[in-house]
Amino acid sequence: NKVGFGVSGVGEYLDQIKAGELRVLAVTGPERVDDLEDAPTLKESGYDVNFTNWRGIVAPPGLSEAQRTKLTRLFEELHDSPEW
């Protein structure tokens, strides 16, 4: 048997999970996820492991302070949105 899998934030997969296209085997954080109440943590599944997803932003060298500030504000707005 083969199991295809992915590791990412819930937001990237939630629509497919709700549509029944993907099945969650476990979540990687220390606690269960509200949107995935039936999904155990890895620790609950017998693996003493937890890690969380992170996101990073990169930009080219020579970015001006004004450009940096504009990008920072943009990503803060995105992060604070309900969709995030």
Q: What does this entry look like structurally?
A:
The protein has two domains: 1-53, no CATH class; 56-84. It contains two helices and no strands. The chain has helices spanning 10-18, 65-80. The termini are far apart.
Furnish the topology, listing elements before pairings:
Blueprint: H1 10-18, H2 65-80
Major beta-sheet overview? none
Q: Whole-number average pLDDT?
A: 89
Fraction of residues in H or I helices: 25-40%
The span between the termini is: 35 Å
Structural domain count: 2
> Which residue ranges are poorly predicted, with pLDDT under 50 across at least 5 consecutive positions?
none
What sequence of helices (H) and strands (E) makes up the elements? HH
Radius of gyration: 17 Å
- Strand percentage lies at under 5%
Shape verdict: elongated
Helical segment count? 2
Structural class, please? mainly alpha
Number of strands: 0
In short:
By secondary structure, the chain is an all-alpha fold. 30% of the residues lie in helices and 0% in strands. The protein is elongated.
